[in-house]
Every structure is written in structure tokens, then in C-alpha cells.
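Weekly sync, protein design subgroup
Attendees: M.S., D.O., the rotation student, P.L. (late)

Item 1: inverse folding check
M.S. brought a backbone from last month's batch and wanted to see whether the design step gives back something sensible before we order anything. D.O. pointed out we never logged the input encoding, so this time it goes straight into the notes. C-alpha cells as presented (195 positions):
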């Protein structure tokens, strides 16, 4: 499992530190509106995140490395014209890796497939792993990352898969790997933490 395909990437130009008072709303880009923001805890306490939209149809998410009175963008992802993502959500959670919390960022893509992309960022401000899930759902509970992806049979319409593949992602031997895996009916798939 790797970060290949991640939406988040380091900025393409040298990031300039910005003043940071400890309020994550300080990090919303000029002309944009915050859709959510937060701070890492424990192992990721040196990170803050902000999800934003505007000006215009632009949507974005930024992960900042926090210092003493300043913050510097470590990772960023942007949907410049608002046509790729229908929603973006980030939250801080313990996904079961090294001690401390990670930042989970989910991007719901447009189109009939309702594909979900998920980036999980670790304490170093690096994407630890990336997931791409058809009609995806994701939940983190009790320190375990869970996701579900539609698996279509030959006669399934695009709206309605026969089953979902349920997986956990576990941190074993210093690497992220798919852990438990099962096929479950749609009635056993919970609501997603990323709409």
C-alpha cells in the first residue's frame, strides 16, 4: 500500500510561513471560506488542516506544518473549477498506525460512480496511504480504519452493486497493509464519514 495517486502533494513553489495564533481559521486562504479546520493531536500535533472553497467554484484542502507562531503549507490539493469533487472532508483520527492521530482527507468525486478518494496523512506531514473506492464509504472507529467499495456483478446496474468489499488498513511491521477483507451486502455498509 502506498501514497500513489494521492490528491495531496507538496506545494509546487516554496511555501512561505504565515502567522498562526493557534486558531485554524487563521489558515484559510485569502478570498476563501472555511468548510472545516482542525489540529492534529499527539503524534500529529505539529499539523493543522483546513478545507475551503472559493473564490468562485474553487475547492481545496491544505495541511500545514505548525511552528512557533507560524504555519507553512506541507501538502495541498485543489479542484480549481469545482468540477472534480462534489465534497471534501477532513478529520483527525487514530487510524491504528504509529502512536498519535493521523489526518484523514476524503474527496467525493463527481459522476455517477460516486467514487471516494482518501488520503491519510501522518505526523511527518506525509501521505501515508491513498485509497480509491467505487461508491466508497470510510469510517475510523476504535483506532481502526475501515472502508467499503462497491463490487459490481455482471448484471448490476451502476446505481446498485450486489456487494461491497469491506477492508481494514492495518499498520504491521512498519508498513500499511490491507488487513481484514470480506464481501458484505449493501445493507451492512454503514454511512460514511465523508458524504
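Designed sequence read out in the meeting:
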Amino acid at each position: 500500500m502506498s501514497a500513489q495517486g494521492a490528491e495531496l502533494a507538496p506545494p509546487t513553489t516554496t511555501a512561505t510561513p504565515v502567522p498562526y495564533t493557534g486558531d485554524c481559521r487563521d489558515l484559510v486562504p485569502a478570498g476563501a471560506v472555511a468548510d472545516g479546520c482542525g489540529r492534529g493531536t499527539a503524534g500529529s500535533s505539529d499539523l493543522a488542516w483546513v478545507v475551503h472553497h472559493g473564490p468562485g467554484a474553487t475547492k481545496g484542502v491544505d495541511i500545514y506544518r505548525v511552528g512557533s507562531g507560524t504555519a507553512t503549507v506541507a501538502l495541498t490539493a485543489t479542484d480549481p473549477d469545482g468540477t472534480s469533487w462534489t465534497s471534501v472532508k477532513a478529520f483527525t483520527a487514530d487510524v491504528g498506525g504509529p502512536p498519535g492521530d493521523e489526518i484523514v482527507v476524503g474527496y467525493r468525486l463527481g459522476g455517477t460512480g460516486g467514487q471516494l478518494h482518501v488520503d491519510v496523512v501522518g505526523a511527518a506531514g506525509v501521505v501515508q496511504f491513498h485509497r480509491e473506492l467505487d461508491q466508497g464509504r470510510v469510517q475510523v472507529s476504535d483506532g481502526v480504519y475501515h472502508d467499503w467499495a462497491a463490487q459490481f456483478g455482471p448484471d448490476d446496474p451502476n446505481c446498485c452493486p450486489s456487494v461491497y468489499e469491506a477492508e481494514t488498513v492495518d499498520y504491521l511491521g512498519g508498513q500499511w497493509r490491507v488487513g481484514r477483507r470480506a464481501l458484505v451486502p449493501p445493507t451492512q455498509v454503514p454511512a460514511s464519514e465523508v458524504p
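Discussion: The mean pLDDT is 90. DSSP finds no helices and 13 strands in the chain.
Action: P.L. to compare against the previous round before Friday.
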